[in-house]
């Protein structure tokens, strides 16, 4: 094992030099005689060949010893954990992406899930993910997906609650509806203000009972869960049902008992819907016309044969789909703009032998009456400002101002010129499409002011004016709320500087009272 080096003119250890190439500095650190490795040994008077021999063989044997089993298992465990962590982060981020985009995660079966399809696109970038998805435990079950979404939801809600606490004061908006399974769900939103108005959706909460006490307790539980003190609640907004707006056992009354400063305001969108409903019921001409529109749209939706007929006939015009929803300005305008196609398709459908032929025949008779055309035009004139009000109420400000503008618009419509314009348009459509002329209803006992021998325009003009008056009255009654008046007074006090005009009010006293409040 000793070799003589002509370069150093000394002997070196062959085994040490060989192992240095493979073990590097480990072999150097393992023995004490560096002379046999680095510089060679030439001091023959102090030869230590016999002493070096057992040292080098012991060092080489220790370098070739395998790692303990426990250490090998620990390394394997750490590697498996790293792979599992990498794959789970891919699963978590993929579920987060689908949730952020509002895409469905589940599919009809396990292989068609959007989550697994998205993960399969990433296997080329992450080789470990491909092996992970083919093993038994993949952490992609529906239970794991729901848990991931719950973690994301709770994190977002905690962040929203933290922001609301920084803004101090807030308002609550709650409304109930049924989901596809028939379970009652209460949607909860919180409104707060800093430099701008913020409306944050908190979530849906399933209710086994819809009593005022149950819903009020749900609201209190949500505030406790989000660590929002009820002392900072300044307003509450619900619909006008008895369990929500009741004076004694409604939600607003029970919440007011806990916090007297939480002023109740009836939901503006719900008020506008109630106003439109009352107007439809106040005029028989309008109510009848909207009823036939609804039946026509139901026929369009239920009968594939009639739908194909209508689409084929109306294809040359600006086609608009008929949808069986609540009567709106768009639904009425879709019928009026496609009136020739409606008449032709109903006539063709009435000659068929299907069950829908009788219904189409009855609708054709109704749409061939001039009174139906006039009713649609009258309803369109009244719905237009009301739908603009509904759109404005979906915003975050200027509710009272929007109602005032709509009332002025409706008052301006109560004129001879406005009704004459609608009546002339009805006559044009009647002459253009060869429709039965407008006639008075059959003789019956009616109030004298409605049946005194007037002509057709006078009778329907009186009905049109009555509908406008009913609309203005309902707007006044629905939006003249005590809660809104309180907020209006506060707004005037803060924005108009009316406080400065009162000499008996002192700023120092107000500051002390504000601190006490």
Low-confidence stretches: 27-32
Q: Taking Cα atoms only, what radius of gyration do you get, to the nearest Å? A: 41 Å
What helical percentage do the residues reach?
Answer: 55-70%
What average pLDDT do the residues reach? 80
Largest sheet entry: 5 strands, mixed
Structural class computed from helices and strand pairing: alpha/beta
Order of helices and strands: EEHHHHHHHEEEHEHHEHHHHHHHHHHHH
Q: Strand order across the biggest sheet?
A: 5-4-3-6-7
What does this protein structure show overall?
The termini are far apart. The chain has helices at 14-23, 25-30, 49-63, 69-100, 114-120, 127-133, 142-167, 212-225, 242-245, 251-258, 268-282, 284-302, 304-314, 329-337, 339-350, 356-367, 370-393, 399-413, 416-433, 456-479, 482-495, 507-516; strands at residues 2-5, 10-13, 170-178, 184-193, 197-207, 233-238, 263-266. It has 5 domains: 2-63, no CATH class; 69-140, no CATH class; 150-266, Nucleotidyltransferase, domain 5, CATH 3.30.420.40; 306-471, no CATH class; 481-517, no CATH class. α11 runs antiparallel to α17. It is of the alpha/beta class. The protein has 22 helices and 7 strands. Residues 91-250 form the DUF4371 domain. This is DUF4371 domain-containing protein.
């Amino acid at each position: 094992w000793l070799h003589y080096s002509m370069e150093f003119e000394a002997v070196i250890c062959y085994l040490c030099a060989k192992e240095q190439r493979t073990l590097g500095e480990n072999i150097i650190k393992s023995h004490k005689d560096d002379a046999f490795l680095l510089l060679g040994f030439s001091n023959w008077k102090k030869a230590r060949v016999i002493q070096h021999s057992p040292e080098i063989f012991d060092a080489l044997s220790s370098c070739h010893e395998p790692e303990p089993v426990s250490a090998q298992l620990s390394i394997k465990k750490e590697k498996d954990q790293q792979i599992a962590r990498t794959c789970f982060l891919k699963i978590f981020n993929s579920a987060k992406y689908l949730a952020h985009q509002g895409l469905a995660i589940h599919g009809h079966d396990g292989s068609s899930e959007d989550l697994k399809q998205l993960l399969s696109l990433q296997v080329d970038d992450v080789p470990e993910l491909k092996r992970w998805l083919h093993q038994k435990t993949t952490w992609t079950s529906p239970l794991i997906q729901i848990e991931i979404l719950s973690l994301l939801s709770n994190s977002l809600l905690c962040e929203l609650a933290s922001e609301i606490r920084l803004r101090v004061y807030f308002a609550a908006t709650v409304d109930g509806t049924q989901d596809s399974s028939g379970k009652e769900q209460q949607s909860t939103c919180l409104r707060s203000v800093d430099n701008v108005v913020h409306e944050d959706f908190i979530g849906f909460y399933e209710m086994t009972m819809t009593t005022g006490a149950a819903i009020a307790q749900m609201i209190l539980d949500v505030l406790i869960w989000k660590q929002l003190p009820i002392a900072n609640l300044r307003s509450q907004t619900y619909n006008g049902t008895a369990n929500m707006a009741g004076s004694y056992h409604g939600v607003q009354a029970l919440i007011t008992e806990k916090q007297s400063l939480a002023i109740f305001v009836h939901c503006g969108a719900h008020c506008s819907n109630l106003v439109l409903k009352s107007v439809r019921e106040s005029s028989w001409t309008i109510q009848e016309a909207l009823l036939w529109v609804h039946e026509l749209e139901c026929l369009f939706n239920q009968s594939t044969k009639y739908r194909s007929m209508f689409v084929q006939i109306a294809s040359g015009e600006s086609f608009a789909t008929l949808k069986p929803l609540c009567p709106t300005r768009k639904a009425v305008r879709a019928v009026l703009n496609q009136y020739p196609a409606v008449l032709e398709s109903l006539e063709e459908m009435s000659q068929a032998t299907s069950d829908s032929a009788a219904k189409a025949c009855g609708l054709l008779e109704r749409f061939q009456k001039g009174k139906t055309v006039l009713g649609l035009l009258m309803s369109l004139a009244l719905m237009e400002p009301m739908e603009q009000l509904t759109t404005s109420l979906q915003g975050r400000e200027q509710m009272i101002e929007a109602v005032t503008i709509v009332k002025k618009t409706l008052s301006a419509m109560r004129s001879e010129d406005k009704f004459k314009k609608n009546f002339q348009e009805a006559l044009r459509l009647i002459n253009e499409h060869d429709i039965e002329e407008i006639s008075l209803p059959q003789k019956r006992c009616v109030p004298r002011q409605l049946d005194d021998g007037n002509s057709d325009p006078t009778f329907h003009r009186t009905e049109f004016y009555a509908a406008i008056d009913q609309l203005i009255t309902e707007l006044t009654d629905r939006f003249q709320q005590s809660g809104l008046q309180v907020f209006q007074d506060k707004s005037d006090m803060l924005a108009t500087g009316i406080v400065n005009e009162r000499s008996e009010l002192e700023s120092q006293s107000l500051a002390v009272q504000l601190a006490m409040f």
